[in-house]
């Protein structure tokens, strides 16, 4: 489920990043996109690994960085607040799923 939601978040977010002002698109936008791709990569790796806890912790760190960059994007007015709120909600849900998966893997 977390992998599918991360994929959906990327599908929604990439067009939003394409709308960033030129000055922000190639710095902030690229970092956000790459960060979420790193989250997706870690989630896929965790799905096939026996060492899930460490990999999911890495995915969570990447997601946390993306959240901070996304917040910065809103404060720099690179993204409209309505889109910021929608993206933040999806990132929060993805974080909950990663946390739940990690807790389950620790048992």
Provide a descriptive summary of the structure in words:
This protein has 107 residues and is an all-alpha fold. It contains four helices and no strands. The protein has helices spanning 2-18, 22-47, 52-75, 81-106. Helix 2 packs antiparallel against helix 3. The radius of gyration is 14 Å and the shape is elongated.
Q: Main β-sheet: number of strands, strand sense, barrel status?
A: none
Radius of gyration using CA atoms only: 14 Å
Structural class: mainly alpha
Beta-strand segment tally: 0
Shape: elongated
> How confident overall, as mean pLDDT?
95
Summary?
The chain has helices spanning 2-18, 22-47, 52-75, 81-106. With 107 residues, it is an all-alpha fold.
Describe the structure using short key phrases:
107 residues; 0% strand; elongated
């Amino acid at each position: 489920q977390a992998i599918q939601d991360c994929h959906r978040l990327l599908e929604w977010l990439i067009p939003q990043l394409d709308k960033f002002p030129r000055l922000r698109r190639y710095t902030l936008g690229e970092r956000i996109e790459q960060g979420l791709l790193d989250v997706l990569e870690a989630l896929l790796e965790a799905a096939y690994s026996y060492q899930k806890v460490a990999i999911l912790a890495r995915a969570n760190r990447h997601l946390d960085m993306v959240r901070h960059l996304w917040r910065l994007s809103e404060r720099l007015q690179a993204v409209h607040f309505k889109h910021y709120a929608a993206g933040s909600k999806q990132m929060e849900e993805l974080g909950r799923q990663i946390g739940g998966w990690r807790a389950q893997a620790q048992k």
